[in-house]
Amino acid sequence: MNAEPIDRHEFRNLMRNIAGQVSVVATGTPGHRKGLTASAVCSLTDLPPTVIVCVNRAAAAHDLIIEHGFFSVNALATGQETIARVFSGMAGASGEQRFETGEWSVGVTGAPVLASAVCHLECRLSEYREASSHTVFFGQVIAGSASADANPLLYHRGSYIGLEAPEREEAFLAAAKTK
Ligand SMILES: Cc1cc2nc3c(=O)[nH]c(=O)nc-3n(C[C@H](O)[C@H](O)[C@H](O)COP(=O)(O)O)c2cc1C
User: Fold this and answer.
1) What distance in angstroms lies between residue 84's CA and the mean position of ligand 1's atoms?
2) Residues 6+ apart with CB under 8 A from 11
């Protein structure tokens, strides 16, 4: 067996099939904020509550996350595709300009938070590890809030996909109860 890694383009072609929640990772204080669209966000453990976020070392927000020591993860909702495009640099905006899209406020840690997100988490950077082109940031979750009626925004095969409300499942469960 050849144990060498596959070609990076082949890897990208495989990975684009895996649907992921679209988030904005944001840091800094008003006037000095930076953020990026990210799908490499994952819950690590609840002992203590920790998430990991993988950020390209070339991203403008990368160094500020380390400098500021706090960051937020804002899981975008269906209908927030424009925010995803702005924070991925597609609209040409950078730094503070990106925060003109969406209703951003200051969280308890000082990090920017988007209350209309499906869920937002505020994290204290507990450690970070460089891994090739990216850095894995470990964030202990200090605070968070969810919008129960919002549905998530996913990215799959190069397109944004807003999830519908899970009505069918709820209707199925309600019907099952009456039997
Ligand atoms: C759907 C989607 C997911 C992304 N996920 C990540 C990610 O997890 N980590 C990352 O470093 N960049 C990710 N990117 C790329 C960054 O959003 C993009 O490079 C951004 O412009 C970096 O910020 P900068 O322009 O301020 O350097 C993603 C882009 C898109 C469209």
Assistant:
1) 9
2) 5
